[in-house]
Each structure stands twice: as C-alpha cells, then as structure tokens.
Amino acid sequence: MTDVFTKAKRSDVMSRIRGKGNQATEIRLMKILRKHKITGWRRHSKRVTGCPDFSWSKERVAVFVDGCFWHGCAKHYQLPRNNRAFWRKKIEGNKKLDKRVTRILRSRGWRVIRIWEHSLEKRPESVIILIQDNLSDLRFRALVDT
C-alpha cells in the first residue's frame, strides 16, 4: 500500500511526534503516580543518564515508559510496510540505546524499571506495585540503617 501523503508531508507529520509528554505513556503514568500518592519523582532529569521519564534521585530509581512502536515491543510492534530498511534500523537503534542506558545506570547503582505502553493500559495496578516495591524497599532500608 502506498503512503497517502507526499514525502514532504509525511516528513512534516513525523517531525511533529513529540518525544516527551506523550499522552499514552508519560502523562498516563504521571496521573497514576499522583492517584496513588507516590511522590518525590522528577520528569526528564538531565542529571540522570538517559534522561528517564521519571526518576527518584535519592532512592536511585529510574523509570522509562517505552512506547510499543518506538521501542519495538515483541507483542505489538509491526514493521511498517514502507521504508522497511529505515524503520528496522531506527527501531534496532532505539533498542540498543535502551540496553546501553540501562546497563550504564545499573553499573552506577540505579534500579531501572522499563514499562511498556501496553502495561499502562492493561495492567496499571501491576505497574504501581512494581514502582512501590522498588521505592519502599529502598526507603525501608534507609530507615533501618539510620
């Protein structure tokens, strides 16, 4: 199937896709965190390698919310029919960067949580439990150590 847009129009459309503040991912998780009164997080902290979507510096927890398309979800990603070589390279590059950032943060003592977009939609309660467990475990240890 051919693209319904001209090459210039498709380029314009794709350039308008935002890397931050995505309604389906980041904003949804932000609302869930607020609903469950989970505080102390920062969004897109440039002080943390990889600029995680949410981070708790004191507890050294970084959360990345990965979109199914842009990060190549095994369950939902479908390679576009047009320009396959470009998209294959693009998504593989995103996956490599994700692994690299995760490895770097873990080597620096951070806990890294990667959440798929579909998990926010279908199992938001399990996402909150995962985040709460990582934070409360570290917060409890800090209380015991003092």
> Can you count the helices?
5
Alpha carbon gap, first and last residue: 64 Å
Going by CATH, the homologous superfamily would be: VSR Endonuclease
Q: Could you describe the largest sheet, including whether it forms a barrel?
A: 3 strands, mixed
Question: Unreliable segments (pLDDT under 50, ≥5 consecutive)?
Answer: 140-146
CATH topology: Endonuclease, Chain A
Tell me the number of structural domains: 1
Strand content: 5-15%
Look at the structure and give the CATH class. Answer: Alpha Beta
The average pLDDT value, as a whole number, equals 87
Examine the secondary-structure arrangement and name the CATH architecture: 3-Layer(aba) Sandwich
Order of helices and strands: HHEEHEHH
Structural class: mainly alpha
In helices, the fraction of residues equals 40-55%
- As laid out across the biggest beta sheet, the strand order is 1-2-3
